[in-house]
């Protein structure tokens, strides 16, 4: 896809009229006295617009849904938002009625601290361990801290990006703008995610069963809520819904975008508005950049793979087939060893519910976005490519895998990574230390 937008500095606060902050309030364990030379791990973020405006969102399709997701689904239906409060270190999932009460309390505290007229204009998100009640006294303190930082002008979007991290090793953030005759339109965003990543997000309410991955986006575009929702759904379809780290999808996956209309563009009031395609491309670029960073930061990942599948009977079957490959533990572990084991890939395609015919499948590797393909399989049979040549491509830190089923026009693309020993060590936990066990 060709993009019209250009990267600019900052992230959430690049668009006009947005402010953000991140603080440590004690959700994540840290002892300043025992670690006097270390900075505490930030664990609460606030994002706020100077004025309310359209809000759009997509959320996990898991049948087990965290309390903040339920809150946001209702708020998105109302169509207006002004702020987002996010905590990390605790998912507030599987917490029953108390979780719902605590979510509302977070929204109310944020509205009061920031002077927002309606609690319903505050969105809430959480990430971290499942099944534990939120430490609300600490969270109330964190919201007050972050709001004070925003009001006195010391809040930074970089801190907000850090404060939503859990197992991430670096903050994911990006901003861009595209020109218009009356002035630029800007977009910004942050995201988190490294493990438990196989999002499938849908508009509220979640319509089918299906990481925690979170993304929060801002724009100063003049745009209506229906157009913003449509643009977000298209952008997520081509970005966050097209990544897979480990095949697990979370109770908390959320992507939320706030718009405040402070740019000078003509109103984008429908998908057929002249400016809508340009805005949609810019939003897709923003989401794609953040989504790729999530895969790049996969827990223990050593390689990134761009799966390109074509020739399925339709796009739905292409998606099914490519997900089967990305979810195969045998395939992903072979990539860790730089092993071009096409037999495992064929097996994954075969047990998917997509139609495949062994004698028609072509399989090739290439360097990222390269037109030069190294084939291991044509029409279901191995070719005489030297094994060392195949290994030289699969041994790259990033490579493309091309699969052609040669049955029809269906195609799909998915960004994924390998599965290393480090992933297992990280996620098995230490039962002698329950705090290390994660969600």
Q: Gyration radius, to the nearest Å?
A: 22 Å
Q: What is the number of strand segments? A: 17
CATH topology of the largest domain: L-amino peptidase D-ALA esterase/amidase
CATH architecture of the largest domain: 4-Layer Sandwich
Count of helix runs: 11
CATH hierarchy, class of the largest domain: Alpha Beta
Q: Please, what is the average pLDDT?
A: 90
- The rounded distance between the terminal residues' Cα atoms is 36 Å
Count of all domains: 2
| Low-pLDDT windows of residues | 206-211
Structural overview:
The chain is α+β, with helices and mostly antiparallel strands and 439 residues long. The chain has two domains: 6-296, L-amino peptidase D-ALA esterase/amidase (4-Layer Sandwich); 304-419, ArgJ beta chain, C-terminal domain (Ubiquitin-like (UB roll), Roll). The protein has eleven helices and 17 strands. Strands 1, 2, 3, 4, 5, 6, 7, 8, 9 and 11 form a ten-stranded mixed β-sheet that branches. Helix 2 runs parallel beside helix 3 (136-151). The longest helix is centred in the middle third of the chain and has 21 residues, at 276-296. It is globular and about 70 Å long. The chain starts with 5 loop residues before the first strand and ends in an 11-residue tail after the last helix.
Question: How is the secondary structure organized here?
Answer:
Layout: E1 6-7, E2 18-23, E3 44-60, H1 67-78, E4 80-90, H2 96-114, E5 122-129, H3 136-151, H4 157-163, E6 172-178, E7 185-192, E8 201-202, E9 214-219, H5 225-237, E10 243-244, E11 254-259, H6 276-296, E12 304-312, H7 315-327, H8 329-336, H9 342-351, E13 362-366, E14 374-378, E15 381-382, H10 387-394, E16 398-404, E17 410-417, H11 421-428
Parallel strand pairs: 4-5, 9-11, 10-17, 12-16
Antiparallel strand pairs: 1-6, 2-3, 3-4, 3-8, 3-11, 6-7, 7-9, 12-17, 13-14, 13-16, 14-15
